[in-house]
Specification:
alpha+beta, 2 domains, three-stranded antiparallel β-sheet, globular
Length: 146
């Protein structure tokens, strides 16, 4: 994981040490074939003597961290993906909306991702604190605000 952390520094991704460590661990898990759901990722994290529920809570906290906002990660991520993107004839972007409850409060996430070899690499996301679909007007207005 030291390689991942040094790579983050080279591409200009400035995060706290705990956030950097969790991001590196999750990327290694995903590259190792773990499914992108909470339980699978928690099971795939390196065993550190803690139980599954503790590791799941760490992932939840990581995903709630403001330090991984798209405003901080988009430019470094594009720098990292530049070699892949320059070789591709087509660039496929996907849009997805997912919703779950956190402490009895609805979390609604709209994501734009790069589709590459069957994986979605999140480029930008908006988190809304209400239930339901996101209108095109709201998507457009939110993207202009950022």
């Amino acid at each position: 994981m030291g390689f991942m952390e040094s790579l983050f520094g080279k591409i200009g991704l400035e995060l706290s040490k705990p956030v950097t460590g969790m991001l590196a661990a999750l990327i290694v898990c995903l590259l190792g074939g773990a499914k992108a759901n909470l339980v699978s990722l928690a099971e795939a994290l390196p065993f550190d003597g803690t139980g599954l529920l503790v590791r799941m809570q760490r992932i939840r906290r990581f995903l709630s961290c403001e330090g991984i906002s798209p405003l901080k990660t988009l430019v470094p991520l594009i720098r990292l993906l530049r070699p892949i993107l320059s070789r591709s004839d087509d660039i496929v972007l996907t849009m997805d909306r997912t919703e779950w409850k956190k402490r009895r409060k609805v979390v609604n996430i709209l994501t734009v991702a790069l589709s590459y070899e069957g994986r979605a690499i999140p480029l930008f996301w908006i988190v809304l604190d209400r239930k339901g679909n996101t209108s095109f007007e709201e998507q457009d207005n939110r993207s202009k605000a950022h």
